[in-house]
Design a protein that fits this description.
CATH architecture: Alpha-Beta Complex
Largest sheet: 6 strands, mixed
Order of helices and strands: EHEHEEEEHHHH
Number of strands: 6
Domain Non-canonical purine NTP phosphatase/PRRC1: 6-158
Shape: elongated
Bound molecules: inosine 5'-triphosphate
CATH class: Alpha Beta
Strand content: 15-25%
Oligomer: single chain
Catalytic activity: XTP + H2O = XDP + phosphate + H(+); ITP + H2O = IDP + phosphate + H(+)
Number of helices: 6
Radius of gyration: 16 Å
Protein name: Probable inosine/xanthosine triphosphatase
GO molecular function: ITPase activity; metal ion binding; nucleotide binding
Keywords: Hydrolase, Magnesium, Manganese, Metal-binding, Nucleotide metabolism, Nucleotide-binding
């Protein structure tokens, strides 16, 4: 099966490879437009970005499966949540969607995002290191390394691949 990943972010590529281990697969990663803001600011917008990336990956990579994984934030009355969403697209089905673990960002980070900054650069500044979004992620920083970004996306991917194989099973009957 030819699986096209709509991102070159290593945390996302690792997650996709982790979750298709049981299937004979070829992986291709492409930079695909999310079609939403650089910093999605709601579940709705983040889901849309994931679906656009999955569909774009499928089309641009001419694959069997397109995967879109998207990080965003979502405002609540308790504070700003970090959220992660994923979508799996095929040629013959509506995209499958799943979301990952979420937690409240510290207020000093949240205020900067509300003022229009992007989480990637804000985290580099906050953690005093480069490429946080390509390594442990904000989740890795704020959980003291207990959960990293690739693990969060791996869980999203398992929800997607699990639903995909379930639907394949239903079709076969
Ligand atoms: O290369 P792509 O696939 O675009 O990966 P990305 O990490 O840059 O882009 P996302 O669309 O997933 O995330 C939107 C923005 O939020 C940032 N972001 C999301 N989750 C993050 C995390 O856990 N740690 C640091 N930055 C994060 C990210 O760097 C972007 O600036």
């Amino acid at each position: 099966m030819k699986i096209i990943i709509g991102s070159k972010n290593p945390t996302k590529i690792t997650a996709v490879k982790n979750s298709f281990q049981h299937l004979e697969s070829e992986f291709i990663s492409l930079d695909v437009q999310s079609g939403v803001s650089e910093q999605p600011f709601s579940d709705e917008e983040t889901i849309k970005g994931a679906i656009n990336r999955a569909k774009g990956a499928l089309e641009q990579g001419n694959g069997d499966i397109g995967i879109g994984l998207e990080g965003g934030v979502h405002e609540t009355s308790h504070g700003l949540l970090l959220c992660n969403w994923g979508a799996l697209a095929t040629l013959d089905m509506e995209p499958i969607v799943a979301g990952g673990a979420r937690f409240l960002l510290p207020e000093e980070v949240a205020v900067r995002l509300r003022a229009g900054e992007e989480l990637g650069p804000v985290m580099e500044d906050y953690a005093k290191k480069k490429n946080v979004s390509k390594q442990e992620g904000a989740v890795g920083v704020f959980t003291n390394g207990m959960v990293n970004r690739a693990e969060v996306f791996t869980h999203v991917m398992k929800l997607l691949v699990g639903q995909f194989t379930y639907q394949q099973k239903l079709k076969a009957h």
